[in-house]
């Protein structure tokens, strides 16, 4: 098992917890720090984190350097930029590079899981960012406790607040590194952390973080149920040729129908990271507001048209 550690309080507390528990559970535990190369002296910082992890008794420990691609030539999921895709900023580009490095390290070292130090405060911020994007209930569900291929990524601190992690480091005299990006107002999450959430707590009272984290879990439960419903209905709304039957789709609740449409569009070749709610809504109008519209062009060169009572999806 590996712990991803930036050297900050959250991940240092998690590294310490893993180092303490691993021998008692018979688990081999190591650590990885990712050097994004975005700041002067980042390689020295990475070497310092490696030394701290080794001092905790973790083995193996490594620093992995990554290149963060420019926002102009990447989409939200690291694919080449194409018309209609969303260009990502430095935060998302760094996240893509970091997860790619963690995936590679986990494969190379044979790790069963990678632990991430996200806290309840991170979860609250993620929910607010999803709310601002208007991305729907799945976005409001925030980060999952278990995610990634085969459940590789684990977030055991999602129920703990950020201050608890910092207090744990202070109690153990663990040195921590505070990333200056986390206080830089140029970054959206930083502004939310230092301006947005405090303003909400001032207006609404304490407990906003806990309420947002609870909203994430409730939203995740609802989204999982709707996804399962859509998966069950998908075969029933296809005709004998395998095409989607518009009348059968129309009879479904909108939340279920749009999930089926999104799944079908991705299966037809539309990149999931470039397929937004507005795209699915446009296709949905071929079902619910049919007035002889022309075909709709979608990311990935996918075309959606209504033809003979069927929704036909083709990649050009």
TrEMBL record:
<keyword id="KW-0547">Nucleotide-binding</keyword>
<dbReference type="Pfam" id="PF01171">
    <property type="entry name" value="ATP_bind_3"/>
</dbReference>
<dbReference type="InterPro" id="IPR012795">
    <property type="entry name" value="tRNA_Ile_lys_synt_N"/>
</dbReference>
<comment type="function">
    <text>Ligates lysine onto the cytidine present at position 34 of the AUA codon-specific tRNA(Ile) that contains the anticodon CAU, in an ATP-dependent manner. Cytidine is converted to lysidine, thus changing the amino acid specificity of the tRNA from methionine to isoleucine.</text>
</comment>
<dbReference type="InterPro" id="IPR014729">
    <property type="entry name" value="Rossmann-like_a/b/a_fold"/>
</dbReference>
<feature type="domain" description="tRNA(Ile)-lysidine synthase substrate-binding">
    <location>
        <begin position="244"/>
        <end position="311"/>
    </location>
</feature>
<dbReference type="Pfam" id="PF09179">
    <property type="entry name" value="TilS"/>
</dbReference>
<dbReference type="InterPro" id="IPR015262">
    <property type="entry name" value="tRNA_Ile_lys_synt_subst-bd"/>
</dbReference>
<protein>
    <recommendedName>
        <fullName>tRNA(Ile)-lysidine synthase</fullName>
        <ecNumber>6.3.4.19</ecNumber>
    </recommendedName>
</protein>
<feature type="domain" description="tRNA(Ile)-lysidine/2-thiocytidine synthase N-terminal">
    <location>
        <begin position="1"/>
        <end position="195"/>
    </location>
</feature>
<keyword id="KW-0436">Ligase</keyword>
<dbReference type="GO" id="GO:0032267">
    <property type="term" value="F:tRNA(Ile)-lysidine synthase activity"/>
</dbReference>
<keyword id="KW-0067">ATP-binding</keyword>
<dbReference type="InterPro" id="IPR012094">
    <property type="entry name" value="tRNA_Ile_lys_synt"/>
</dbReference>
<feature type="binding site">
    <location>
        <begin position="6"/>
        <end position="11"/>
    </location>
    <ligand>
        <name>ATP</name>
    </ligand>
</feature>
<comment type="similarity">
    <text>Belongs to the tRNA(Ile)-lysidine synthase family.</text>
</comment>
<keyword id="KW-0963">Cytoplasm</keyword>
<keyword id="KW-0819">tRNA processing</keyword>
<dbReference type="InterPro" id="IPR011063">
    <property type="entry name" value="TilS/TtcA_N"/>
</dbReference>
